[in-house]
Amino acid sequence: MSTGTHIPDWLGVLASIVLVLIAIGVSMRAHLGLTRELLWAAGRAFVQLVAVGIVLTLLFTRAGLPGALLWVTGMVAVAGFVAAGRSRGLPQGRRIAWVSVGAGTATTVGVLLVLGVIEPVPSVVVPVGGMVVSGSMTAASLTMRNLAGIADTQRADIEARLALGLRSEDAMAPHLRRAAITALVPAIDSTKVVGLIALPGAMTGLILAGVEPIVAVRYQIVVMYMLLAAASLSAVVATRMTRRALFDDADRLHRVPPTS
Fold first, then answer.
1. What is the CB neighbour count within 10 angstroms for residue 63?
2. What is the DSSP letter of 117?
């Protein structure tokens, strides 16, 4: 089997702008009013990816494992901002997001490195770390958003439980379980149907690079398992921290603005 693959050159990248024009044409035809958004998204993606490509090239060639871990830490910081932004008004939302995403990422990547599953080199740690951060961010964001919404819509039920003498953790217990389960559904469902509905990103990338499918499968199995672990850890940490943030020292429920 040939290991060669055709990678688009810059002319090919420019030619792919036709696809953006198709999207714009469809938007205009359907009167969606998204022309400016599509142009901005396409232009921003181009600039961001080129900039990241340049930085990663320098990182891969000049920085070792410490540099790679520093880059992953930066991704965790950005992910915390994004996750907290989805649940504005939640007390200590940014801190909860950072700790939740950081816990899921550090534990998962740490285990992979300690067990020797991945190589301790930037070209491996950074892409793997990016996938882990993304999965952790999604789980933390969903958990925080769900609990913030529950604190607003189920306030009467929660306060009734508190009035009966229950502690905050007991009054919130059913809602905490539901929020964590909801946050983990995407990761669980993706793991169940991996390879049946669509070939996932890591496997597709390896196959396009000329790697034999059975070899790509081994890597994808590791990816799916690490995403499950990262999402689970982040969801549990976010659940516990959010519950504490929603109540004061006297177990009184804070008022949380409705999530948008």
1. 17
2. S
Asked if 101 and 158 count as a contact pair (C-beta separation under 8 A), the reply is: no
How is the chain split into domains, by residue range? Answer: 8-62, 64-246
Q: Which of 45, 57, 51, 52 is nearest to 17 (CA)?
A: 45
User: What backbone torsions phi and psi does residue 253 show, to the nearest 5 degrees?
Assistant: -75, 125
177 phi/psi in degrees, rounded to 5: -60, -45
Residues 6+ apart with CB under 8 A from 75: 129, 130, 133
The per-residue pLDDT for range 163-214, each reduced to its tens digit, is 888 888 888 888 888 888 988 998 888 888 877 776 677 777 777 777 888 8
pLDDT tens digits along 243-256: 888 887 777 777 76
Q: What sections of 86-121 are H helices per DSSP?
A: 93-114
pLDDT band at 18 (very low <50, low <70, confident <90, very high): very high
pLDDT confidence of residue 256: 67
This prediction has a pTM of 0.80
Long-range residue pairs from 166-173, CB within 8 A, at least 24 positions apart, any chain: 167/251, 168/243, 168/246, 168/247, 168/251, 168/253, 169/243, 171/251, 172/243, 172/246
pLDDT at 246: 82
Sequence-distant (6+) residues with CB within 8 A of 209 are: 3, 5
